[in-house]
Amino acid sequence: MRFVSLLAVALAFCALDAWAARPPTKTDSYLDTDNIRMIALLRGMTDSRIGEKIPGLTLQDGTLTLKDATFLGSLIVPARKQHIYTFKTGGRQNSYVWIEPGGVPLAVPPAPKNNFREFAYSLSGDVYRFPEIRPGAGVIVLPGGSKKWLQQVKAESKKWP
């Protein structure tokens, strides 16, 4: 009986090891490509484009993001390698955030009290469950893009050159 228990534990560890060492999937490849393309689009959104409607970006899975979105502005903190771009689509405001490798993580704003859904997503639509946006995590979408949170980030950014 003890042998069976040890065998079960060993098989479980092998399965975990195989899962952790899995090769990249097509979804991983798509998300990498989508992140590169979205960052390029966002970098092109300068202050001169505030108020402009953009046609959107078709992701690798065929979904169209930012369709007819109005650009509201950006906040870039070079010393912390943080990038925040805010858009309005219909009646909703969304912030698209990424942190460059070597940058300082940025806390995810709390979800509104009346919102029971998750509050941060990757471009693929998967829920982003970390309490902060981490360097190298790709573009994270924050539905609602809290004005209070943006003001806090702006105030904090003034402390950095």
Strands, helices and their partners?
Blueprint: H1 2-20, H2 26-43, E1 53-54, E2 57-58, E3 64-65, E4 69-77, E5 82-89, E6 92-99, E7 106-107, E8 121-122, E9 132-133, E10 140-143, H3 147-157
Antiparallel strand pairs: 1-4, 2-3, 4-5, 5-6, 6-10, 7-9, 8-10
- Binned strand content: 25-35%
Please summarize the sheet with the most strands. 6 strands, antiparallel
Beta strand count:
10
What is the SS-derived class? alpha+beta
Give the overall shape, derived from the CA principal axes. Answer: globular
| Rg of Cα set | 19 Å
Any low-confidence stretches, pLDDT <50, length ≥5?
3-24
- Quickly count the helices: 3
Helix content: 25-40%
In the residues, how many domains can be counted? 1
Integer average pLDDT: 79
Terminal-residue CA separation: 64 Å
User: N-to-C SSE series?
Assistant: HHEEEEEEEEEEH
Instruction: Tell me the strand order in the biggest sheet.
Output: 1-4-5-6-10-8
